[in-house]
Amino acid sequence: QVQLVESGGGVVQAGGSLRLSCVVSGSIFKFLSMGWYRQAPGKQRELVAAITSGGSTNYADSVKGRFTISRDNAKNTVYLQMNSLKPDDTGVYYCRLSSTVRDYWGRGTQVTVSS
Question: What is the dihedral of CA 1, 40, 67, 109, to 10 degrees?
Fold first, then answer.
């Protein structure tokens, strides 16, 4: 059974940094991409950053230049380094893994940026 577990969220002041981690356990037939999504109160879940199996990355315009997605295959972990955080970055951050069979989601980690 595949499981995704996020960690690293917390409360930080505007301008600060956090690094989120997503550890994947279980057997994946074919991994296509992994991504970080976030959902603010009263808003829809949105893509923040994604990385493909080939290493290509893409980011939401609102986080370009501030966030970096990376992965460590040996540790089955994907990271999201978040710098220069803004109050608008507040929300629950979810990790998603897309495979040829289905998508998997973690339960999320809360990020709160105070002004």
Answer: -40
pLDDT in tens, 29-85: 677 899 999 999 999 999 999 999 999 999 999 999 999 999 998 899 999 999 999
d(CA 48, CA 63): 7
Cα 18 to the chain's mean position, in Å? Answer: 12
Burial per residue of 18-43, b for 16 or more beta-carbon CB atoms within 10 angstroms, e otherwise: bebbbbbeeebeebebbbbbbeeeee
Task: Give the residue among 84, 90, 88, 85 at the shortest CA–CA distance from 112.
Answer: 90
